[in-house]
Write a structure and sequence with these properties.
312 residues, alpha/beta, eight-stranded mixed sheet, 10 helices, 34% helix
Length: 312
């Protein structure tokens, strides 16, 4: 079974500047473990099928308008039933006041009720985005992550092969460092991976013979970035005589990370190769392929047409 991540409710309150209507006694221990948010319209009307007690529930204009049309006794019955499921929290958006019956039952079942002044749709959208990132499946990989011309490039290779040296050369050429040595990778969707550095290593890079340097302080804040999508993986390998390396690039190879297929190229390392330039070309070529242009395929077609014309 995979690791289940969670976010403290107190972190959400700080992030979105929420205010309390009622704070539960176990508030400091409440954790949100799912990234789905629900609007409780049908549940407030009594339809409790498919109710998800692990979700945060957000009330907006529609829910509050419906509740206002009910009698106090009806609201009391609704909230008595609703809060008996012990949800992590209810959030009332648009600055609406919580009905007295809501607070009475929240206190009875010890459920936190919060307030947001944001519009409901905007708040729900922002909250889902935040939770998807915070609760996303993740893995830590050894390597270096840089952004080259807007492409997130994860550089892999055995220790001492020159990953960090290549990264610092790319930084000098105007590109940005995201992570060195350890890269935390999150899966935000079925096709999107985002990499970042562990907090303790952020902006630092190790260069053998020099030591650890702070790239942000040495090259400026424009030389670093907190996170980046991972668009391409480059494997640095020592050159081996007799090894067959891709000369044309007709077939795109992939590496699977968290069940996401990431395009991958292998760069053999020999003395004198300008790796920074090669990596820049690899990044631009990868972007061009995603836009539907494949130079290797075009080149092969031109060769085929040439030899076909020669034989006619």
């Amino acid at each position: 079974m995979g690791t289940v991540y969670s976010v403290l409710l107190s972190e959400l309150i700080d992030e979105f500047k929420l205010e309390f209507f009622y704070k539960s006694s176990d508030f400091e221990k409440i954790r949100v473990t799912v990234d789905d948010i629900s609007r409780p319209g049908l549940h407030l009307a009594g339809f409790m099928d498919h109710f998800e007690p692990m979700r945060v529930y957000v009330c907006g204009t529609v829910e509050m308008a419906y509740l206002q049309k009910l009698t106090s006794e009806e609201r009391l019955i609704i909230f008595d039933h609703f809060f008996s499921y012990k949800i992590p929290a209810m959030i009332i958006a648009r600055g609406f006041d919580a009905p007295p019956e809501c607070l009475e039952m929240a206190e009875k079942y010890d459920v936190t009720v919060l307030s947001s002044k944001d519009t409901t749709s905007s708040f729900v959208s922002s909250l889902i985005t935040y939770l998807k990132s915070a609760l996303a499946p993740r893995v830590t990989r050894h390597g270096v992550l840089v952004e080259i011309y807007g492409e997130g490039i994860l550089i892999n290779g055995e220790s001492g092969i020159g990953k960090s040296e290549t990264a610092i050369e790319l930084v000098k050429r105007g590109h940005r460092l995201i992570a060195d040595d350890a890269v935390e990778i999150k899966k935000l969707s079925s096709r999107e991976l985002v990499g970042s550095a562990p907090e303790v290593l952020k902006h630092y890079i190790e260069l053998r013979g020099i030591g650890v340097i702070n790239v942000a302080k040495l090259f400026g804040m424009g030389a670093v970035k907190d996170s980046s999508n991972i668009d391409l993986i480059i494997n640095m390998v020592p050159w081996r005589d007799g090894e067959a390396y891709d000369r044309i690039g007709m077939e795109t190879k992939y590496t699977e990370v968290l069940d996401v297929q990431v395009p991958t190229v292998t760069i053999p390392i020999t003395p004198g190769r300008n790796l920074a330039v090669i990596f820049e070309v690899a990044a631009m070529n990868n972007r061009q392929k995603r836009m539907g242009f494949n130079d290797a395929l075009e080149f092969t077609q031109q060769l085929n047409n040439y030899f076909q014309n020669q034989n006619e």
